[in-house]
Every structure is written in structure tokens, then in C-alpha cells.
Design brief:
Radius of gyration: 18 Å
Helix content: 25-40%
Oligomer: single chain
Largest sheet: 2 strands, antiparallel
Number of strands: 2
Distance between the termini: 64 Å
Order of helices and strands: EEHHH
């Protein structure tokens, strides 16, 4: 039995809700990605129904993907408040794909641990 989609999510309860992390993709006739709705036993309902993944509100400003992250967050928060996460993901799919590509390209990026300190050490 599935939970009511209009009911607020309870973060302490893991239930069958709408699957967000395990989305199913298909290509249309123009070779664009389409998001299909799907159910899976491994998935759980996403608690935050406003932020489209993989956007991160606490991403470091020095990250190469920071502008794309901000663009996806703006698109996500510009959607109507009654829109669920699946609809937001489909609406912001172009920005989402660009951010995912950037994150894959910059997977090895690490923040500078010593901002303001010289890059050399004498001993």
C-alpha cells in the first residue's frame, strides 16, 4: 500500500513513496532523455520535495560546477509550490543534465584546505 502523495513526508519513516533516486530514463524519437515514473523495492520517498538532485545548497563557491548548481537551484525553487519532485525534475531536466555532466568531469575536485596560505612549505 502506498502513502498519500499529498501527506507531508515523515523523515523518520521509510515507506514506499514515489521513487526519486531510482528514476527510469528513456529516449524519445529526438534522442532526448525522458523521465518515466517507476516503482522499485530499493527506493524510498525523498524527504526534500523542493530541491532537484544533484543540486546542493551547500556547494563550495570555488567548485567549478557552482554556477550550474545555482542555476538548477533557481529553476527548482521557481517551480510552483504544489509541484512534486518528479515534476520539478522533469521541468529542470536540461539544467540537471548540465550539472550532472559537470560533476562527472570534476569528480576529482577537492576544496583548497589552506585558503590564504602559501602553496609552499619550508618545513
Amino acid at each position: 500500500m502506498s502513502s498519500d502523495p499529498e501527506a507531508p513526508a515523515n523523515p523518520s519513516r521509510i515507506s514506499g513513496g514515489h521513487i526519486v533516486r531510482n528514476m527510469i530514463y528513456a529516449h524519445d524519437e529526438n534522442h532526448n532523455l525522458e523521465i518515466l515514473s517507476g516503482w522499485s523495492e530499493q527506493g524510498t520517498r525523498e524527504y526534500d520535495q523542493e530541491t532537484v538532485r544533484p543540486a546542493n545548497a551547500s556547494m563550495a563557491k570555488g567548485h567549478p560546477c557552482f554556477p550550474l548548481n545555482q542555476e538548477l537551484l533557481r529553476c527548482s525553487y521557481a517551480c510552483p509550490t504544489e509541484m512534486k519532485l518528479g515534476g520539478r525534475t522533469a521541468t529542470c531536466n536540461t539544467e540537471r543534465q548540465a550539472l550532472m555532466r559537470c560533476l562527472v568531469k570534476n569528480k576529482q575536485w577537492k576544496p583548497r584546505e589552506a585558503e590564504g596560505k602559501p602553496w609552499y612549505r619550508l618545513w
